[in-house]
Amino acid sequence: MPFYVMQGQVPSKRHIAFEKPNGELYREELFSTHGFANIYSNKYHHNMPTKALDVSALSVTHGEHWQDSLIQNYKLDSRKADRDGNFFTARNKLFFNNDVAMYTARVTEDTKCFYRNAYADEVIFVHEGSGKLYSEYGVLEVNRWDYLVIPRGTTYQLRFDSLDNVRLFVIEAFSMVEVPKHFRNEYGQLLESAPYCERDIRVPQLQPAIVEKGHFPLISKFGDRYQQLMLQWHPFDLVGWDGCVYPWAFNIQEYAPKVGKIHLPPSDHLLFTAHNFVICNFVPRLYDFHPQAIPAPYYHSNIDSDEVLYYVDGDFMSRKGIEAGYLTLHQKGVPHGPQPGKTEASIGKKETYEYAVMVDTFAPLKLTDNVKQTMSDDYNRSWLED
After folding, report:
1. DSSP state of 342
2. CA proximity to 353, closest of 311, 384, 300, 302
3. How far apart are CA 93 and CA 66, in angstroms?
4. In angstroms, what CA-CA distances link 311 with 82, 99, 176?
5. DSSP string, 11-47
6. For an engineered disulfide with 329, which of 74, 158, 213, 309 has Cβ 3.0 to 4.6 Å away?
């Protein structure tokens, strides 16, 4: 994160005795990244965070590798993969490689379990629904169309106001999810030219510590493996914390898009970066102002990256037959671009209303059987003239 936060009670210096009113010690936990060489937070617990009663294996599946999928353009309706489950069991894996994995989920159940993704940062785009994210750091309000950025190792719960219609697009990053470096100055402050600023970022608000002994199930995810750890003490027992590692929220509607004289490349709609992939988003914006500008994108081949688009809302200028909750995958080495008539129809248009989340990867993506079961069989023929 680009800025430091301190909440609750913390001692005057790190790593010194910090006593409770009864003379016992609060337990300091350093939550660090990159082997103590990058951003970190210090958390002060009432009890040792290491106290566990037992650990056991847990079986949760999200989709199997589709071994013989073709290298081609794909369109799929993720809603066809919907199944019952809570905010982590309902996830359906669609695309993955060694850097990133992408899931969609319709959440139909609540859970009292705590959850921790031990190996991956998570970016959860809340397509439909609202509620609260509870973590050691406090409570974070969750709104429709929020990006929730949750650092790996964070113990949290995600609860919704209603389960009538909750839909998520989840990105697992096996490297740190970061605000792009060229959005920040040398001190970490977001630049005037960045498409969002610190005021747009929402952080958790620490709540009174829950000092409760019992049996508290924590579900931990290690890559594709799950385990259940039974904690002896409630994990949300912090008296205070400070640092730069914590879950936070940003709403897609706060993104300030760039506008150019001619069509800007997708990289100008950048949102977050990680190792070997980026996250961008498309939002309502004015179109290009050259008198002969073609607002629709030019045909292009992704020779260095695979491109995934998750469609959120609006009228998608370059595609036909797209609804909210659909995804497209355009793989490296296969040309793609506007469908017939879309280039001509865009000329002279002054603005567009569309919301979409894009993930571009620099290593090829593998597909799961969820793609096979939800794909449109005729998408490759959608560029043929009638």
Report:
1. H
2. 311
3. 11
4. 16, 22, 25
5. -SSTTS--B-TTSPBPEEEEEESTTTTS-EEEEEESS
6. 74
pLDDT at residue 345 in the model? 87
* CA-based nearest residue to 247, from 166, 101, 145, 146: 146
pLDDT at 2: 65
pTM above 0.85, yes or no: yes
Beta strands 167-173 and 131-135 are unpaired
Helix, strand, coil content of the chain in percent (nearest 5): 10, 40, 50
Residues 6+ apart with CB under 8 A from 94: 63, 76, 78, 81, 102, 103, 104, 327, 367, 368, 370, 371
Q: What is the DSSP letter of 343?
A: H
107: left (phi over 0), alpha (psi -120 to 50) or beta: beta
- Average pLDDT in the 30-57 region? 96
Q: Which amino acid is at 365?
A: L
The total of other beta-carbon atoms located within 10 Å of residue 176's CB is 17
- Mean of the pLDDT values across residues 207-224? 98
| C-alpha span between 383 and 379 (Å, rounded) | 8
Per-residue pLDDT, averaged over 295-300, amounts to 87
Q: Tell me the CB-side half-sphere exposure of residue 114, using CA atoms within 13 A.
A: 21
Q: Provide the b/e sequence for 206-219 (b: ≥16 CB within 10 Å).
A: beebeeeeeebebb
Mean pLDDT across the stretch 351-379? 96
Task: Sort 15 into a burial class: Cβ within 10 Å, 0-12 / 13-18 / 19+.
Answer: exposed
8 A C-beta contact, residue 327 and residue 309: yes
Q: Does residue 291 register a pLDDT over 80?
A: yes
Neighbours of 193 (CB within 10 A): 9
